[in-house]
Design goal:
Helix content is about 40%, strand content about 35%. With about 260 residues, the chain is of the alpha+beta class. Among the domains are: about 35 residues, no CATH class; about 140 residues, Jelly Rolls (Sandwich), CATH 2.60.120.1440. Strands 1, 2, 3, 4, 5, 6, 7, 8, 9, 10, 11 and 12 form a twelve-stranded mixed beta sheet that branches. Strand 9 and strand 10 form a beta hairpin. The N terminus is likely disordered.
Length: about 260
């Protein structure tokens, strides 16, 4: 086991936490911080608080955009039959001003990741994305662009499923499941619990309470929960990284309890 993972102090760990929340830690720095958080409840609590604050900021910003877009649609339907061409154009410009500033706020806060994206392509049963059921997006005509942006959760009820296309492949969640998007390029998902079927041509990192699965490419299944991490890998390259060291996966099953 690496000595750095054992000797990282609370002060050093807390200095790295904001960078980790923004998705800026990789390699040995990331592994040493994870090892410290596994054994330090105080630093783990600080990390959870910062992740929850980022999620709240993302949801608040998205609600502002949704409210502005809904007002624009309602007003356009109400006035399109009575307004002339120049008046209609002026009204649209007036409505676009608050929408533009809401968009600017989102860009500054870093809630929306730049392209590439994580997009919901299939949903069965009860599925929530960023705090809203999929049906709510469909009613607003947004079914073709359901995004799991950085800082947003996807929750799938028992008996349901949700499939996402992401940079380098596809991930399917089988309920009950709860997943937080922590990064888009490269994709990184925090799995609170659930079963995930993976088909990847590029890198992907799945962080669980029992360790992380780092995928270079291939196909397999991950089952995660507070007390279990089970990985069944069919083909390609992947490895489990936890506080006790690293395990290189062969095309079979690795279990951590």
């Amino acid at each position: 086991m690496d000595t750095e993972r054992q000797t990282l102090s609370c002060e050093e760990a807390q200095a790295k936490i904001p960078q980790h929340v923004q998705g800026g830690l990789i390699g040995e720095e990331l592994r040493s911080l994870r090892a410290h958080l596994e054994g330090c409840p105080a630093c783990a609590a600080i990390y959870r608080e910062q992740v929850e604050a980022k999620v709240d900021l993302g949801l608040h910003a998205m609600k502002e955009v949704e409210a502005a877009e809904t007002r624009r649609k309602v007003e356009r339907a109400r006035t399109s039959s009575t307004m002339g061409g120049p008046e209609r154009l002026l009204k649209i410009r007036t409505l676009l001003v608050p929408l533009f500033f809401a968009w600017l706020l989102i860009q500054i806060s870093g809630v929306f990741a730049e392209s590439p994206r994580i997009v919901l392509v299939e949903a069965e049963g009860t599925v929530d994305v960023a705090g809203r059921p999929v049906e709510a997006y469909e009613e607003l005509g947004e079914a073709d662009s359901l995004l799991l942006v950085r800082g947003a959760w996807c929750q799938v009820a028992d008996g349901g499923s949700a499939a996402f296309e992401l940079p380098g492949g596809r991930v399917k969640l089988v309920g009950p499941a709860a997943v937080l998007a922590e990064g888009v390029e490269p994709p990184r998902l925090r799995v609170q619990y659930g079963t995930l079927a993976l088909a990847m041509d590029g890198p992907l990192e799945l962080v669980t309470q029992r360790g992380a699965l780092e995928v270079s490419g291939g196909e397999g299944t991950l089952v995660a929960g507070p007390e279990v991490l089970e990985v069944s890998w069919v083909s390609g390259d992947a490895r489990v990284v936890d506080a006790r060291g690293e395990t290189i996966l062969e095309p079979d099953t690795v279990t951590r309890r």
